Amino acid sequence: MSFIVTCMPGLASLLAQELMRLGVPSTPEGLAAVRLDAAESDQQMRDALTVCLWSRLAERVLYPLAIHEGAPDEAPELLAAAIDWPQQLGVGGQVHLKVDHERGLRGDTRVTRNRFLRCLPPNARSCEHSQGSLCLHLALGAERSEIRVDLSGEPLQRRGYRLDGGAAPLRETLAAAVLEAAEWPARVQAEEPARLVDPFCGSGTLLLEAAALALNIAPGLGRTEFGLLHWAPVPQAEWQTLRQQAQDARRSAPAGLSLKGFDADASALAAAHANAARAGLGALIHFERRELGALRRRDFIARDAVGTGLVVTNPPWGERLEEQERAGWLCQALGQVMLRCVPDWTALVIASKAEMLDRSGMEADAHWKVRNGPLTVYLRRMRPVRRPLPAPLQVIGELAFEPPEQAVALVNRLRKNSRQLRKWLDQSGVQAYRLYDRDLPEFNFSIDIYGDKVLLQEYAPPKSVDEAAAAQRRTWAVTAVRAALGAHREQVFLRTRAQQRGRGQYQKLDQANDYEVVQEGNVRLLVNLRDYLDSGLFLDHRPMRLRLGEEAAGARFLNLFGYTGAATLHAAAGGARSTVTVDASRKYLDWAGCNLALNGFGSVQHQLVRADVRQWVAENHHEFDLIFCDPPTFSNNKSRDDFVVQRDHAELIRNLMKHLAPGGALYFSCNFRRFEMDAEISRWYQVEDISRWSIPPDFQRNERIHYCFRISHGD
């Protein structure tokens, strides 16, 4: 019989690769184990002890003592009787038994365990724990059962350095497998500097395993207890010799070794520091509180340094569906950050769903599917790939086709508007803009461009208009857009706007969950042209959002009636210390969370609050340096009086100013066309009307699209 080394299902090939590097030849046995290949029993024993001491991927080292081929009902007693107990029992005679049933085979584990233990010889006694015991593993199958001795005792993943794993600790053996898949062992042996960054380091397991491997620290040296110490056939003197050799094999850190871990969670970083200190590796690893979206090239590699490195990480997966959706966008953010900072580095990422990794936008060259207890996880080795967003559509050159006569007027107006905006578009890099806004009475539409997509929004005609005539006008409008912009039918989306009340504005129109990504300044934003009446981005507030990003560095930012969080995102990217976004809609807040994740920001420093804004403002007493408030013209609420912006804005502003820190600024905006600021606000506070400045070039045909004010405490 041969020793069997088990691992997490899916890692057998990586385990065999690791053992070969240790000089231990093996052959994979399925997806979760390898069999040691040495022919001589003495060499097999040495190899098994080497695995216990040196393998970072192995879970257990097992040796079959007896096999029963037949029904499982009689296996416990027959296997116990087949063991030569005097040759197996160590000093003390304690026996600890673990029982496993083959999948699909029913059985009472406790009863099976007692049946086996009743057959122990008089000089042996059962023990509930593995410490100080001969550890046996009884595997019952429908046609074949086996009793094995477990040289590991406790699983080999328990290195001894980690007491606090954080909220979702990464198994040490899985962390080691990730490093093996990323070819970290070869990098620490190479002449060029070995660099590794984990932007979601949590309690630091990946970095600790990487540091131990770089210093050639045997993972078994951190443990004093093994099952092999209580198995009589083990040559204990040889085991002690192997331990001494392992202690002597530790080396100093390779030249240029760089290990960095970042996380937004201060408590996770505290655990990481404690674990690193316990392992004696604290001086080797740089931990810092930082979000993915805030990382710059200097965080990965020193200025003027050359060479490549690895990003090895286990991003947050999320348990709820909306959290899993954000996890996918977070993977895309990782690809974008790497593309911006270290485009020639390699990433090895862990995810709970392959779709999350698909969304990264990176190019994969290897992947593994691993069973981690009840969960399936995916490992993928990838490289960032530049995939530029499509340039915004403009009316340039010849028409795509000759439109019908009834659509020519709209085509000509689109051509004129595009010509007026072309220089601004080329210079600003704006990707989402308004091309047309009810310029012609017969075409009561707004037409917005989102990259290579077009959104036509028809303002609902009065009931006196013949529906057939209205439908024909919609057809002409779509035809004009396609002819002028050269857009295919699937690039054009049509919506009809009508006054919405209560929850009607939040209702889904489709179930596609089809999001497009557009660039605005230095952030990316998600828009949805299919599922909702609104796209998720108010284009007329573009200058205001960019200004918030410029003023947010180090600020505590509050975004009220936050919608999909675009203003929050600009503040976060601008270096805000923290942000709070308040909105009554769960859907919009989930959308805001996805926007944050798409740019590498999470919920630790950026709080999303579902609440009635006026109630939240009245009940909370936090202070903010920068506030953006963009209320609706009208809003009804079951638990409060209706909100009417012209009537109620003064009270809202006075309450908001109680939250504004000295030297801070409140930006107040609204879309009510006949809005007038209450004169009392100007008497109490310093008010600057910035409406004209805040209207971008693509909305200047309608200067009453919104009003915007900067309000401060003054002297």
CATH class of the largest domain: Alpha Beta
Q: Roughly what percent helix?
A: 25-40%
What is the radius of gyration? 33 Å
User: How widely separated are the two ends?
Assistant: 87 Å
CATH topology-level fold name of the largest domain:
Rossmann fold
Overall morphology: elongated
CATH architecture of the largest domain: 3-Layer(aba) Sandwich
Number of strand segments: 30
Low-pLDDT stretches are: 500-512
Tally of separate domains? 4
Average residue-wise pLDDT: 92
CATH superfamily of the largest domain: Vaccinia Virus protein VP39
What percentage of the residues does DSSP assign to strands (E)?
15-25%
Number of helices: 22
Give a short account of the largest sheet: 8 strands, mixed
GO molecular function, one term: 23S rRNA (guanine(2445)-N(2))-methyltransferase activity
Protein name: Bifunctional 23S rRNA (Guanine(2069)-N(7))-methyltransferase RlmK/23S rRNA (Guanine(2445)-N(2))-methyltransferase RlmL
Domain Ribosomal RNA large subunit methyltransferase K/L-like methyltransferase: 159-376
Keywords: Cytoplasm, Methyltransferase, rRNA processing, S-adenosyl-L-methionine, Transferase
